[in-house]
Specification:
Blueprint (H helix, E strand, L loop, with lengths): L3 H52 L17 E4 L5 E4 L3 E4 L50 E2 L5 E9 L2 E13 L5 E9 L1 H53 L14 H50 L6 H25 L7 E4 H10 L8 E4 L7 E4 L1 H18 L4 E8 L2 E8 L33 H11 L3 E6 L5 E8 L7
Parallel strand pairs: 9-11
Antiparallel strand pairs: 1-2, 1-7, 3-5, 4-6, 5-6, 6-7, 8-10, 11-12, 12-14, 13-14
Helix pairs in contact: 1-2, 3-4, 4-7, 6-7
């Protein structure tokens, strides 16, 4: 399934189906157990009623047995022989015996230990003496077992009708010391009817419930994903038109989809800015390259027509400028491509001394102040960090009047390289704009004296790649003060 709505609806339906089936089975099991326990209790009551009669020495043929259809009863002796059974009981299973006809047994048929010769059931000539020895003692009586009865399930057939029953077995001891077992049953028809009704209701309601769950989930998912479809359609239109100024619709809710729309618009804004910056970069680069190339071509064409008029120094100057501009553009392209700086261990003091010592032909001498014993180590690319220092010194030389100073020191876990001059400085509103590419202030627009406006942009990009910062403030001499801050490399010895 490729549709999120379909997968969500199917998943919700499966989960609800499993939950309903589990809950339904639990309800059926609990209902069946409760109704079965009720039937067992009824069977136990019926069995104890008959057992109580036996304990009172009621003869087995005179037992008051309940209706066989409601409570089928069997009475067996210690040898398992059937001595009494409910009337109209045709067949039975699940009790001590499946017989339904009483068998010959040694169980007495009267309250005494036997019968008299005249069949009256009274060994003393029919007179109730109240005792055996004339001393007024009470005749012995039996007892009913207080142990929990044994329960079994079985069937009983009464008048050609067969039904399921729950049987309870209770033991009773007569006054003569004879132990008999009463098996009494209670019908399970109520339990079966109730469980069947609940089962049918569940089987009927489950498909309907699942259809409702699937439909509601489908509709709710469709409604929830409608903004996503709007975002997708707008993104598709933006891709087709290449118009990055368009934005996707943002729903008024505060859920994940609204956050997705806002994040998408933020990405489009950043992408639009990046594309605009790239377009300006290409246009500015083309403009900057056009001038030296045109100048160089003019000089070469004049030299070809009139060799005596060829300005070789000017051609060399334009070539060097063209070469420097191409190198700057290549470095910016590598930085934009995400080139990572190296991990070389560098001493910024030594690097500053090296860069300053190479500037012997500068218009203004550069003074360097580096602590001799202070650790000034950082991690990064030697060539790129040297490029930052060189660009900062070039910028200071271009604008300074009489002095350029470089200071290296540590401050709060950072190594700071500060380059200051006594020139006109940078106006505060322009202190961030000068780090943009191809930006030159009004007093530095001359291409003969100024650069292409890439030096400070390259310096800041390289500083950021090294987890550092590059800012400009006012120097104590009144000019500009550029501060390069780089994370200091931890000293293993400390």
């Amino acid at each position: 399934m490729r549709s999120v709505r379909a997968r969500a609806a199917l998943g919700a339906t499966v989960v609800v189906a499993v939950a309903l089936i589990g809950a339904g089975l639990a309800v059926l099991l609990v209902l069946r157990a409760n109704l079965t326990d009720q039937a067992a209790l009824q069977a136990e009551v019926a069995a104890r009623e008959v057992a109580g009669q036996l304990a009172l020495d009621v003869p087995v043929h005179q037992l008051d047995l309940p209706d066989a259809e409601e409570h089928p009863v069997q009475v067996t002796d210690e040898d398992g022989r059937l001595v009494a059974v409910s009337k109209d009981l045709v067949a039975i299973t699940g009790t001590g015996t499946d017989r339904v006809e009483p068998q010959a047994s040694a169980v007495p048929t009267s309250a005494g230990t036997g019968t008299d010769d005249d069949g009256s059931g009274d060994r003393h000539g029919g007179e109730d003496r109240g005792d055996d020895d004339g001393n007024g003692s009470i005749p012995a009586r039996g007892e009913v077992s207080t142990d929990d009865p044994d329960f079994t399930n079985g069937t009983a057939t009464v008048d050609e009708g067969t039904a399921d029953y729950r049987f309870a077995s209770v033991s009773a001891t007569t006054g003569a010391g004879v132990t008999l077992t009463v098996h009494a049953g209670a019908p399970l028809a109520t339990e079966q009817k109730a469980v069947g009704s609940v089962r049918r209701a569940m089987l009927t309601g489950l498909p309907v419930m699942l259809l409702i769950v699937a439909a509601v989930t489908w509709l709710m998912t469709r409604r929830a994903l409608r903004p996503v479809e709007g975002i997708r359609a707008e993104m598709s239109a933006i891709t087709a038109s290449a118009d990055l100024s368009r934005r996707v619709p943002e729903p008024g809710s505060r859920d994940e989809i609204a956050r997705l729309a806002r994040t998408t618009n933020e990405t489009l804004t950043a992408l639009e800015a990046s594309v605009d910056r790239q377009r300006r970069f290409v246009a500015d680069a083309s403009h900057e390259l056009r001038s030296p190339i045109a100048s160089l071509r003019t000089q070469l064409e004049v030299g070809a027509a009139h060799p005596e008029l060829l300005d070789v120094p000017g051609a060399v100057t334009d070539t060097v400028r063209l070469q420097a501009l191409a190198a700057d553009l290549l470095l910016l392209a590598r930085l934009d491509a995400g080139e990572r700086p190296g991990s070389t261990r560098l001493d910024m003091g030594a690097l500053v001394h090296e860069e300053v010592s190479q500037r012997t032909g500068d218009r203004i001498p550069v003074s360097a102040s580096v602590p001799p014993s202070e650790p000034l180590e950082v991690t990064g690319s030697r060539s790129q960090l040297a490029r930052i220092i060189g660009n900062l010194l070039d910028n200071a030389e271009r604008h300074a009047e009489s002095s350029v100073a470089v200071t290296v020191y540590t401050e709060r876990g950072s190594v700071v390289v500060a380059v200051g001059d006594d020139g006109p400085g940078v106006p505060e509103p322009e202190r961030e704009r000068i780090f943009e590419r191809f930006v030159r202030l009004d007093d530095a627009r001359s291409r003969d004296e100024g650069g292409a406006g890439l030096g400070l942009a390259i310096a800041r990009d390289v500083a950021r790649r090294h987890q550092g910062t590059l800012t400009v403030t006012r120097s104590p001499e009144g000019g500009a003060r550029f501060e390069l801050r780089l994370p200091a490399r931890p000293d293993p010895g400390r």
